[in-house]
Amino acid sequence: MSDLFNLKGKVAAVTGANTGLGRAMAIALAAAGARIALIGRSEPADTAAQIKSLGGDSAAIMADLSVIENLPDVVRESEKALGPIDILVNNAGIIRRADALDFSEEDWDAVLATNLKSPFFLAKAAARSMVDAGRSGKIVNVASLLSFQGGIRVASYTASKSGLAGLTRLLANEWASRRINVNAIVPGYFATNNTEALRNDKGRNAEIVARIPAGRWGDPSDLGGAVVFLASRASDYVHGALLPVDGGWLAR
């Protein structure tokens, strides 16, 4: 059974792997045996060091993922460094907050470009490499609770993550016959730099924890099992799934 989750010999590309959820998923994939292309704007030195401490191998691929014409080069650079990509984790994302009545076109476009347009075209570039070489592959998008819920003051983020959920299903429909699995992880409330302000707000923190059946914020390491599952042979017959890792939030 353990062989189903063994990623030895596989190459995984993870966007936004320098901090938070991306770092945790990259480390989990490395612990399962994959070599990791760490893709993003910031140097992922800490992530690379942790992967090295596990005896793993990684390469930093510096790129602005919002510039779509760069994305085929990102795939080529990753494959030049580590070999053909078997697994893509579309994790990188940004958020902008404002009342809908005041939301700017600039903030709308920036979030949609990074959270929705970039994952599609990066998945397209990775899948093109897989299809042209006759290889199977796994693509894991990182959706959000706001793929299911509306939220407040995050119009472009909600739109992007709702769109990413639909895109996950569409790509699964198109690429399942090509032996490419496309699925998504749906993280709940996790303790990261992005949620520090919420956790420091005693009132809001208490409200959030009270709403989570598990009774706690998620730790980034809680995503490890889900991402390894969706990246491994264990999920070979899983296509178009949106897997919540949310402590039961959506079940409440």
Could you walk me through the main structural features you see in this protein, from its secondary elements to its overall organization?
This protein is 42% helix and 15% strand. By secondary structure, the protein is an alpha/beta fold. It has a single domain, classed as NAD(P)-binding Rossmann-like Domain (Rossmann fold, 3-Layer(aba) Sandwich), CATH 3.40.50.720. The chain has a seven-stranded parallel sheet with strand order 3-2-1-4-5-6-7, sandwiched between helices. β1, α1 and β2 form a beta-alpha-beta unit. The radius of gyration is 17 Å and the shape is globular.
Number of helices: 8
Any idea of the CATH class?
Alpha Beta
What spatial form do the alpha-carbon principal axes imply? globular
Helix content: 40-55%
N→C terminal distance: 32 Å
Provide the β-strand percentage band: 15-25%
For the CA atoms, what is the radius of gyration? 17 Å
Helices and strands, in N-to-C order? Answer: EHEHEHEHEHEHHHE
Strand order of the largest sheet: 3-2-1-4-5-6-7
Structural class based on helices, strands and sheet pairing: alpha/beta
CATH fold-type name: Rossmann fold
Largest sheet: 7 strands, parallel
